[in-house]
Amino acid sequence: GLDLVEWQLRVAAGEPLPLRQDQLTIDGHAIEARIYAEDPDKGFLPSTGKLLHLSPPLESEHVRVDTGVEQGDAITPYYDPMIAKLIVWDATRDAALARMRQALAHYRVVGVANNVEFLSRLVAVPSFAHADLDTALIEREQANLFPEKSAVPDEVWLLAALAELQREAAVARQAADRDSPWRMLDGWRLNGRATRGISLRYGEQLREVSVQVAAGGFELGLDGRIVFARGIAGANSLLHAQLGERRVHATVVVSGERRHVFFEGRSWPLALVDTLNVGGAGEDVEGGLKAPMPGKVIALIAQVGAQVDKGAPLLVLEAMKMEHTIHAPKAGTLKAFRYAVGDQVVDGVDLVDFEAAP
Which of 99, 209, 274, 329 is a Cys-bridge partner for 88, taking CB atoms 3.0 to 4.6 Å apart? Predict the structure, then answer.
């Protein structure tokens, strides 16, 4: 409750310290975490780009956020890549750690790599929880701080699909011809209900969620399991959802093809695969497909030697923090990839050897 900066100014002006050391008492415990635009999986290298979505936890008597940036700002290579200082306070260290875990679970950053999930793991490891701290902590807790990548939970795929359906409904409601029968999204068909698929990708994993409109919501199918789902879109990309018997809350942020799903303290950048967004059927594709822009290959989707249909995703480029899926413009055979994951490519180079079906 004392303003130390004010004290510094008073002392600099020649005034005495307002209180003596024996008049001071410690009240509770505070912990500060620095939210950085950096990639812990790549040696904590700084990350640059635009803050497409920035939503810190709500401030209170227990939580404080000091920041100099806001959503829409850019993290550049010319300055320190710190996004904010997150400070929590509570009566004991254990209580303060719980506050920090909760605050980090509600921090949302999209557009740059960041250390939020790393910090969440850090404050939970035994060494940090018990204040057994030294400069070798990260090496000592390597297994806990850098765990093996786990499978994406089924709820994340379903939430991404549900958010996409909510987004489509919002677009239809705002359209000038919203009363047109072609804008109806009720799935009506003459002889039954319509079924469609929403294809999503995480890295090289591709899954499809089947969708049927149901009374008050949707029936979503994933690997043969059908779940009734409905949702209400809230402010700041929030999604309040019911998945079967569960009521859950998530944040789903749209950024180009990506659907960043924040759920239960973690985030997954899924990509929406639009199989209709492909090249024209009449173009000559013998020999290869070209990079539409400079970028980095981040995923190889199809298998070499596989026969693929028109619209099948082949590989994914990342450019300017956006993902671009390269699709097969015709049915044919993928003969070879010319680049590996992680390779940088220039505009116009051949990415794959592709043989169109006769």
Answer: 99
Give yes or no for residue 280 having a pLDDT over 50. no
**Alpha carbons 155 and 254: distance in angstroms, whole number:** 17
CA angle in degrees (0–180, nearest 5) for 273-258-297:
75
> Given its phi and psi angles, is residue 111 left (phi above 0), alpha (psi -120 to 50 degrees) or beta?
left
94's tokens: 């254990």
Most confidently predicted of 240-244, 269-273, 311-315: 240-244
Beta strand pairing call for 74-75 and 82-90: unpaired
Give the pLDDT confidence of 238-256 residue by residue, as tens digits: 999 999 999 999 999 998 8
What is the per-residue pLDDT for 291? Answer: 85
Whether the pLDDT of residue 342 is over 60: the answer is: yes
What SS3 string covers the chain? CCCHHHHHHHHHCCCCCCCCHHHCCCCCEEEEEEEECEEHHHCCEECCEECCEEECCCCCCCEEEEECCCCCCEECCCCCCEEEEEEEEECCHHHHHHHHHHHHHCCEEECCCCCHHHHHHHCCCHHHHCCCCCCCHHHHCHHHHCCCCCCCCHHHHHHHHHHHHHHHHHHHHHCCCCCCHHHCCCCEECCEECCEEEEEEECCEEEEEEEEEECCEEEEEECCEEEEEEEEECHHHEEEEEECCEEEEEEEEEECCEEEEEECCEEEEEEEECCCCCCCCCCCCCCCEECCCCEEEEEECCCCCCEECCCCEEEEEEECCEEEEEECCCCEEEEEECCCCCCEECCCCEEEEEEECC
Stretch 86-115: mean pLDDT:
96
